[in-house]
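Hi P.,

Sorry for the delay on this. The queue was packed all week, but I finally got your sequence through. Input first:
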Amino acid sequence: MEKHLLKVRTVIISDVHLGTRNCKAEEVNHFLKHTRCEKLILNGDIIDGWRLKKSAFWPKAHTRFLRIVLKKMEKRGTRVVYLRGNHDDLLSHFIPVRFKSLEIVEDHVHVTADGRRYFVLHGDVFDTVTKNFVFLAYLGDWGYRALMGLNRLYNQWRAWRGKEYYSISKAIKARVKRAVAHVSNYELHIAELAKSRGCTGVMCGHIHTAADRMMGEVHYLNSGDWVESLTAIVEHLDGRLELIDFAEFLRSFPMQADAADETAPASPVAPATDA
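Then the structure:
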């Protein structure tokens, strides 16, 4: 018997950054394992090629992410659309690539169940720093990783004092990202592009700031990230789009139950419990 799942038409996630110590792989794996969808859109920076060039960090949870996605394709019939991001820009040499249930592309038009068209892209092409000052983008990436390391130490101290988690890096990053978005008119450009493509909305990632709002006539959605925000976009069976927060998701699908599943003795006749 299939366990309790969130059944939707489409799931959109971005900025997982597999291959980095800051990736919340266990959390995103839990989310994907407890969802069923006809279509999965991986909207850029899923694998962090920048870090893999310099570090061999790749724990089992990161491999398991790939296994969950592959199983969705092979056994659930899920269509997977992978969009190139700036941290996995190596893919730009090969795209577009299309197989039976997998396509790797630069951008994508998603049509909802109720007929609305959404332009989907990672969004780095409209980030002035990433596009025109690559050395600054790498410098910013180094600074962000250093800040995340400091953040871990600070929260270890807070936990020892019995205090709740507080993200210094998220607060600082939000200010920096807002400044970059302001300089490049990031969101405005993306909304205008969607409109020029005959779309009523746009879905992007890149700036690690989840959003769901109207920008004039254009519905702007940002799927956030799986480093700190831990958010995703889902399309329900009726075409309704919703921004999902992992903390809220855990209320219906607690990780304790998932952990019990993982440690239970395997049965030779029981169906697999992965996604």
